[in-house]
């Protein structure tokens, strides 16, 4: 029990600090790396709660795909981050207002009757493992009750992937590109030229 509680607070603190560094780091590449660190610690919290499938999905999908995609987009796009930071003070009051509204809503949530009967000791208990696997339970709910939402999220990720490809695609003059259509429909008579070379003579290039 003591090791479980210490592990929970350890991963939670690192996840919160890395999340704060995501929005406070000046270098966008460092922000993405802190985002990956936050995802890894969140997956460790899922393991402590007994949701090993969610932890694996968080590592494979978000760390292995989404965060790496963000990293490549930030590195490949020529974005002037100095101009983007110039309007920070202009939107600061609006951001502070949203933060206060969020804190008020969280306070109202934790002071409801649903949390009044629970204490920290109840939350720190070890998760109870059932006979049915966590993956099977999650798949049953995901592909029955939330099937359409699952398909919509897949379409959104597909649109995001296409958008990142379009943003990073650059047309450069003087660069030779491979044209598959011309290669497939190429005539051998036009591609190969036969020349008869006399013995002892070469061809000037």
Please give a structural write-up.
With 205 residues, this protein is mainly alpha-helical. 69% of the residues lie in helices and 0% in strands. The chain starts with a helix and ends in a 14-residue tail after the last helix.
CATH class of the domain at 1-79 and 120-129: Mainly Alpha
What average pLDDT do the residues reach? 78
CATH architecture designation of the domain at 1-79 and 120-129: Up-down Bundle
Low-pLDDT residue spans: none
Report the radius of gyration as a whole number of Å: 28 Å
Q: What is the CATH fold-level name of the domain at 1-79 and 120-129?
A: Four Helix Bundle (Hemerythrin (Met), subunit A)
| Distance from first to last alpha carbon | 80 Å
State the fourth-level CATH superfamily of the domain at 1-79 and 120-129: NADH-ubiquinone/plastoquinone oxidoreductase chain 6, subunit NuoJ
The major β-sheet equals: none
Alpha plus pi helix count: 10
Helix and strand element order? HHHHHHHHHH
Would you tell me the structural class of the helices and strands?
mainly alpha
- Please state roughly what percent of the residues sit in beta strands, choosing from under 5%, 5-15%, 15-25%, 25-35%, 35-45% or over 45%: under 5%
Q: What percent of the residues sit in helical stretches (DSSP H or I)? A: 55-70%
| Count of distinct strands | 0
What is the general shape?
A: elongated
